[in-house]
Design a protein that fits this description.
mainly beta; Outer Surface Protein A, domain 3; 3 helices; 21 strands; elongated
Length: about 280
């Protein structure tokens, strides 16, 4: 998902080399007086955008200047603070002179859509590419958590409530085609998980879950949509009859499983009867 250029925050400098200091370690108060140019500009712009009565809290690290003559303060994050000193507004995080994320706060707690951005060599020189969106409601992640491919297309959408994953989670390939669908209940897989053939969109594999454990039948399909294989499962293990089919849908082979071990038809019937 590509955004329009952001004038003050889109500068890309790739030559930064952060090294540990050997002689002395500076406090945040010391570093605020040693800011390098990028940090000075961003802090100035951040201050100008603050509502009346608001202040800000910088989070700084340190590095040697290029000539190694002095220590400079480099910017890692800026947090807006309301008149009571609580985070309120959009907190900005930086990574090697690039915005890495923006986190919304309301009266001291996360509330709104947190956004994470592509950084490094693949990041654009202008504008931002979102890699993730995380919905916050009064300090809890609730809603659809989204992850994106570098080209901006949705990679994964996960629905969450206060207890964890809930409902359907969908995964997409780089071209935007659905490749996997998983259902959750109370944070656990529950229902049918389906993997798809990306070119045809037809099911490739279907697995039944109950409260996080495979239960029922695992089915696999040819890309034509014809059933290729089905296996009975119990408590997460192959347990029962496996049936295989040719590409015309005709039965081709049958196998037997007992607690994840392949057994003969005779032994399977013997185990079933308890002998």
């Amino acid at each position: 998902m590509k955004l329009s250029p952001i004038t003050h925050y889109s500068l890309l400098i790739t030559s930064l080399l952060i090294t540990p200091l050997l002689a002395e370690d500076f406090s945040q108060a010391d570093l605020i007086n040693r800011l390098e140019g990028f940090a000075q500009r961003h802090i100035a712009d951040f201050q100008k955008a603050l509502p009346k009565g608001y202040s800000y809290r910088p989070f700084l690290s340190q590095r040697w200047s290029d000539d190694e003559q002095k220590v400079l303060g480099i910017l890692l994050a800026l947090t807006p603070l309301d008149p009571e000193g609580r985070p309120d507004g959009e907190e900005i995080h930086y990574d090697s002179y690039q915005i890495s994320s923006t986190v919304p706060y309301e009266k001291g707690v996360k509330h709104g859509i947190e956004k994470r951005y592509l950084t490094g060599r693949n990041a654009p020189r202008e504008g931002l590419i979102i890699t993730a969106e995380i919905p916050w409601e009064h300090g809890k992640v609730i809603g659809t958590k989204k992850f994106f491919h570098d080209n901006g297309k949705l990679r994964l959408g996960v629905v969450l409530d206060a207890a964890g994953r809930e409902g359907e989670s969908q995964e997409f390939d780089v071209n935007g085609r659905l490749v996997k669908s998983t259902h959750y209940l109370g944070g656990e897989r529950h229902g049918v998980m389906t993997e798809f053939w990306s070119l045809t969109g037809k099911p490739r594999r279907m697995v039944e879950y109950q409260k996080g454990v495979m239960q029922g039948v695992v089915k696999e399909y040819y890309d034509s949509g014809i059933l290729q294989r089905e296996v009975e499962v119990k408590d997460g293990e192959f347990h029962g009859v496996e049936r295989q089919f040719d590409e015309d849908g005709e039965p081709s082979k049958q196998k037997y499983w007992w607690k994840d071990d392949a057994v003969s038809a005779h032994k399977f019937k013997s185990l079933q009867s308890g002998n």
